[in-house]
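Item description
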Amino acid sequence: MKGKALVFLAAFVLAVPLASAQGKGGGDQGRPQGQGQGQGQQGRGSEMGKGTMQRDRIRATDQQRDQIRTCDQSMDRVRTRTRDMTKAADGKNFNAQETRQQRNELRNEVQTMEQEHTRLMQGLSGEQREALREQIRSMEQNREQIRTRLQEMDQELAGEGPNGKRVAEHARAIEREMKQWQKTNREMGEEMSARP
């Protein structure tokens, strides 16, 4: 009888830690089933909500949509002018006087486009500026490159016998910078939900 009691006691002592270990389980200790998944979905939902709020904060006004469109059209005109200038300066019948006239027209187009771009930038809210800072920085770099190329073109055309090939090279570089500027302007418009 004493032996049976000892066996029973030994079995009980061994069973208690085993049951306790099974109760603790793995990483979901004491947590109702499915709770982790619910929290993950809630986190994703809150991130999506933040994204929507962000878009609402930077959404373009009607005036900004018009300004973005106006800038885009002005950039098209600058690019057309640079392409025409490249053809004229790069050809066999390069005429310095005509090219100077084209340069003046190009400069006027660039100046008009810059004024429109400046108005657009001045109309941005602080939140829009913060959200679009990379695009704004990129466009400022394009602006500086175009100004530098225009100065170099002026220097080339200021002499008695300007080199048409070099003038054409500057015009092509301006067209490339303007193309990139226009691309960024369109991306900015899309981010502000300004474009369909």
